[in-house]
Amino acid sequence: MTPPTRCKVPVGLEPALRACGVAPGDVLALAGLPTGLFSVPGAALPVPAYFELWRAIRKVSDDPDIGLALARAIRADFTEPYFLAVFSCATLGAAVQVVARYKRILSPEDVDLDVDRVGGEATVTYRWPAGVGPPPQALVDAELAFLTELARRVAVDSPLRVELAAPMLDAPSGHAAYYGCPIRIGAPRNALVLAAADLDLPLGTHNPALLRALVPYLRANTPAAPGGEVEQVRSAIARRLPGARPTVDAVARDVAMSGRSLQRLLREHGTAFRELLDEVRQEHARGYLRATSFSDAEVAFLLGFGDPASFYRAFRAWTGMSPGRFRQQN
Asked: Which residue range or ranges hold the HTH araC/xylS-type domain (predicted)?
């Protein structure tokens, strides 16, 4: 499917604006958009016009924290199939995977989830194409606050850290009060950092039947970035590694797919689950042996091996040397 060049206007944006005391008509007028835009089903805008919409929201509201307020006000779970799927997932981690995997159904934006079990962090990064310029801060705030609100549904009061690419904020105190965690300004990315362990927390809105019904629609209508789907599977494998060997069905649930669909996806990309599992294990093994003093038994556990001997044999098959020799040479 051709990569998207337009951004879908969220169905719940107009009532959320009203709830925040912002006149939708004034926003559309300032942005130079049609007065009936919010009433058009499936309305979508070119990226520059969508950014202008969010700049107008900021100006009309005269509120530097309007993006945070909109994320709290919008009834996302009752609007788009995308959001319905997010809230139908079993765990916070699975919901973030759906956010990442299907975000492009709404806009030409990539969302990456990087889980570092050793450091205990799970980083969710939002990336717009380089050619469109920096997104308005109100839009960045709304997207990161949406994830924060999602995490708060499973009793995660605050992220570990927020990273904002903006060189400055108009009113930093509002962001500090909302997030309740360190905020890095002028970062190379817009990202929310959660505790990796929190990804396993259950969502109270879990609805497996609804999720099964929605996924075919999302798959059919989401333009995937090259290799993006496989990277999501890699991340899911990495998240499940500690303590036990990840299974096809478990990883498939994490990325909101059936086991059969997952295996078909990997075949279409010229790989297989076992191959991807070995790649992820080898990559993490090299990282642990280079950067930590973990014993072979501890590394084996973190990689999901049943015992150190199994890890030893696998590592020798991957590299032609023992873990100890590799550590000495690196």
From this structure: 231-329
